[in-house]
Amino acid sequence: FHWHLEFPGIFAVSDPPTANVDPTTGWQGGFTCVVGNPPWETLQLEDKQFFAAVGRNDIAKAKTAAIREKMIQTLAREDALLYAAYQATRRTSDATTHLVRGGRFPLTATGKINTYSVFAETFRTVATPTGTSGIITPTGLATDKTMAPFFADTLSSGRLIAFYDFDNEAKIFPGVHHAFRFAVTAMAGTQRTVSRTRFAFLTRHVADVPGRRFELAAEEAFALNPNTGTLPVFRTRADAEITLGVYRRHPILIRDGQAQGNVWGLTFSQGLFNMASDSGMFRQRDELAAEDFNGWSYDGDMEYLPLYEAKFLWYFDNRFSTYRNATQAQLNMQTLPRLTDHQHDDPNNEPLARYWISRPKVAEALAGKWDRGWLLGWRDITGVEKVRTFVSSVMPTSAVGHKFSLAFPNNPSHGLLLHAVWSSMIFDYVARQKISGTGMAYFVVKQIACPTPDSFAQASNWQPNCTLAEWVIPYVLELSYTSWRLRPYAQEMCDDGPPFRWNPDRRALLRADLDAAMLHVYGLTRVEAEHVLDSFPIVRKYEERDHGEYRTRRLVLEAYDRMTAASARSGSGWMSLAEPSAGSGPRHTPQ
């Protein structure tokens, strides 16, 4: 669409550019106000959606992408008309994407392009320098990495007037899923700037905006996401103040472009195998000759390792769920049976996988990245409405699907400390201020505030006779090492004993101590600690159902208070309700 040709009375072209000309387009003039709700669609063709729309669910619901591609190619012989329609639609999609990437949208035509993003850039461009533009888009306009150049430019130039984020629980948009997040964004022209931007997040009704609204300066927002300039997502001003305080005390995990910006020496990997593009090398149960599928398997002389999916893993639990005895209804809902406490107490009981991959393929995927018998990572699929948002876990070295992201510290012992931090409620709390969608992407994780390795080399305030690392490791050991498959992880912590028993009550106490410790390390006051714990409503709901109280809140605050009292007593130590076993010394009811 050629704006300056269609509206010659609104726009003019200046060559060379003069005053009041957009330096990107060379246009001058524009509309006083631009407002709209553009389409929210990806430009790229999605094969699943195309074939579902034409009634070919057999292709749309193919088990893997490799199988789907073969089925599409057979259409050339079996249904030439449908195949031709598919090819024409793909050509149109590819051509449109090529055109959009041609230079007119320098800030938004990146990655997997959505129509709302290029509309947003257009809205801002066609407004006069003293005008305003307002647009309704998914919240990803402010939080997605592909939108970072556009949003950071809007924020840093003082052109972001307001950003009001909504969930759809009240069905403002009846045809959109209730959990979908969208936002109203108001942007100023180049000659009309603002010093502080008005924000409101997770709003349910338009009338609620005035009561939830607060202001932030651009530099405050940038302090929280310095790599990308994307927007944190705060429910309240209290969340903003707590999070800003955390960022004043601790650096982000990885600061891009700085020589000392990666103090943990981390590299990341999106699992080891893509569940779609690598599916050709997956083996299923009926293809393997082994009788025992409780973990590793064999087919002749070839060893096959189970493909761990993110749903297998939870906090301090590498055996969270299993395909064993899963019903078709559970498979359709993408939920699996969970191991019971009794099953967890058997250190030989491992989750049953859906796929296996040969050991040489796994070794090839890890070559040059990692040489230990354990892996650290986090679930990619998540959301602020879940029980927890940043779900970290350690698992035995094996095949891993791409929805469980892996972290490789250059010093493996640092992985033990990161495991403790990443499993804490305060780290989860900070992480949930960063996302609006369903993915815990690298760019989000890199910008979460995290204590440095030097912090763990210092004495803990509540137990001054040992360093924070020495205090933390026994907790990580006992909470993690409940399965023989994680023996390499225990050996990393200098433990050669058998796995620990799975005692739910004791584990609750251990985790409460660890959570309380991290609240102190992050520097939160008692009131702030209460606020953080109260921000997990689903945890509260389940615990009130199962225990008659929000048990985690009580246990963590009690441990927090004991640590505070011990710190005030000038090094007299503190009392834990569940002192963990350390190293190869006395152990709590081992197997």
Written description of the protein model:
Helices cover 37% and strands 16% of the residues. β17 and β18 (463-467) form a beta hairpin. The longest helix has 21 residues, at 80-100.
In short:
The protein is α+β, with helices and mostly antiparallel strands. The protein has 24 helices and 18 strands.
List the helices and strands and how they pair.
Layout: H1 3-6, E1 11-13, E2 27-29, E3 31-36, H2 47-53, H3 57-60, H4 65-78, H5 80-100, H6 115-126, E4 127-138, H7 140-143, H8 148-156, E5 160-167, E6 181-188, E7 196-203, H9 209-212, E8 214-217, H10 218-224, H11 237-249, E9 266-269, E10 297-299, E11 302-308, H12 328-332, H13 341-344, E12 356-358, H14 359-366, E13 374-379, E14 392-396, E15 399-400, E16 404-409, H15 412-422, H16 425-432, H17 442-445, H18 453-457, E17 459-460, E18 463-467, H19 468-480, H20 487-492, H21 504-521, H22 526-534, H23 537-547, H24 551-568
Parallel strand pairs: 3-4, 5-7, 11-15
Antiparallel strand pairs: 1-2, 4-6, 5-6, 7-8, 9-16, 10-11, 11-12, 13-14, 13-16, 17-18
Helix pairs in contact: 4-5, 15-19, 21-24, 22-24
Search tags:
591 residues; alpha+beta; 6-stranded mixed beta sheet; 4-stranded antiparallel beta sheet; disordered C terminus
